[in-house]
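Subject: sequence -> structure tokens, single chain

Hey, anyone have a minute? Need the predicted structure for the following. Not urgent.
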Amino acid sequence: MIQFEHRPGILDLSWGHPRPGLLPVEEWAAATATAAREFGWRQLTYGYPTGPAPLLEWLTAHLNAIEDGGAEARQLFVTAGASHGMALAASLLAGPGDVILVDSPTYHLAFRILADTGATLLRAPADADGVDPAALAGLLATLRAEGRRVPLLYLVPTFANPTGRSLPLDRRRDLVSLAQRSGLTLLEDDTYRELTYDGEAPPSLWRLSGGEGVVRLGSFAKTVAPGLRLGWINAAPALIARLATLGYVHSGGGVNHAVATTMSCFGASGAYDRHVATVRAEYRTQRDALVAALRPHLPVAAPAGGWFLWAALPPGLSATRLLPEAERRGTSFAPGPLFYADGNGGEDRIRLSFSHLTPAHLTTAANRLGAALAP
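Reply:
Had a minute. Here:
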């Protein structure tokens, strides 16, 4: 019935899923009842192409509040989650024969979505701070001199999956400037923005761009629940109009209309803000528990937000070779090579999720990993 496959005896650190006990079952049920009363039959018929007005209005106000402006309702399109938004945007902006650049390392399940366009995926030049705008400009010039069309760069610049890092502000500005000069579109996966534990999240590429040269993907999967299959695209009004006139949108009447109307009630009631405050505190505790338990075994830094640790292994140790030993000891992780589009790189790294398990289980899992690391 659900995607996560529990394996008896294994405390699995590889899954980027919410902790089941943190999902707002009762609060969502209350919002569902409120939406049914408030919208009646309108909740169960075909929806407006870009999304129902109550959600667009609440979401616009919310996005403006968390970033001090930068969002208008005409720049929003409601999607069935960030993956759906990625597929939609990529299908309109890229196609067979094109090159899509991707950060390295980055969210591994994006690779297939982007490759479904028929484009070739290539690694963007990056270092420990993320995408390098100067090196990227050189790569763009080389590819275009070869006659290659390069319409997109995909990245998770804020509390990234898998690294937990955020792109520095100067690079954000330089990257936006490069995109606007060169005609490259930055496909910004901004799904972790509100899961911040230390200080504030940096400004989004979308906010810095003024809406030009950036398409932002947002989602309620991390802040509320992934089973809602609800998210949004921020883009220039011209691209929003193209999305709204897609054949399946015209035929189906918007995307996920009933859940979208329920989310508008969940947000307007204050339940969204209360829930995000709760999960932010819980995930901070879970992060701290995993970091503290790992430090006797691995040098790990606590990310300022998101769901993941990107841990460096001792010299000479391979993530691929370590995995079966870790599972024999009763834990698991995602090996680094998964997060490179060409599979080259990351053997000295592992991604560990602190989102899915309780602090006690995270401590036990870390100790099991430590036993697997021991000579």
